[in-house]
Design goal:
Four Helix Bundle (Hemerythrin (Met), subunit A); about 200 residues; two-stranded antiparallel sheet
Length: about 200
């Protein structure tokens, strides 16, 4: 049992809240403001990781799931919005969304399997009951960074007029490669990425 209201967890939830704002700005082609809001979301991501690493009382099992979940929600919304704005190809966005849906489904499954009886809905969705801690693979962390770099580059493209750049297209290929590789790493090292806290 742990306190879910830590600063890193609040920052992760704030990042989730910024996702629909960013999506709206991109669809409305307000790329200047969207770029600024994206930088703000990036700052919350850096801050929650820094605080969790340096203050033991701010680290939580919930945070180990909430932080990557916030990243996935933000990235999914950004990629769908950027695809609607014709800045990222549909095939790449589909690949990223499918991977993230599979990972989120796996998290829900792990939560169910590691929750001690009685497995009620109130206990299942109660963030105070910590049952497992997630440890992303190195390639998965790398993939998240690459995906965010592509988002930043794509948001900046219409602002600085390099939408058809070959460098941007090369970044699409790199992102596709790291996405597939990270999905395989979770499949291959699945059990090693989950640390069960309590099986009693």
């Amino acid at each position: 049992y742990e306190n879910p209201w830590t600063i890193p967890n609040i920052l992760s939830m704030a990042r989730m809240g910024l996702a629909p704002v960013l999506g709206y700005l991109i669809v409305e082609e307000n790329f200047d403001v969207a770029l600024g809001v994206f930088v703000l979301a990036g700052v919350t991501d850096l801050l929650d990781g820094f605080i969790a690493r340096n203050w033991a009382n701010q680290k939580s099992a919930l945070g180990s799931a909430l932080d990557p979940l916030a990243d996935k929600i933000l990235i999914s919304v950004l990629y769908v919005s950027l695809t609607c704005a014709n800045l990222i190809p549909v095939s790449l966005t589909s690949m990223i969304i499918l991977r993230d849906v599979a990972l989120i489904a796996a998290v829900f499954y792990v939560r169910y399997k590691t929750l001690s009886p009685p497995r009620t809905l109130s206990r299942y969705f109660n963030p105070c009951y910590a049952t497992a801690q997630l440890k992303p693979t190195f390639i998965s962390k790398t993939n998240t960074v690459v995906q965010l770099i592509l988002v930043a580059a794509s948001l900046a493209a219409p602002v600085f007029n390099y939408v058809d750049s070959i460098y941007l297209q090369t970044l699409w290929c790199i992102t596709a490669f790291t996405t597939v590789t990270s999905a395989y790493s979770y499949y291959h090292y699945g059990r090693k990425t989950v640390q069960v806290i309590n099986n009693k």
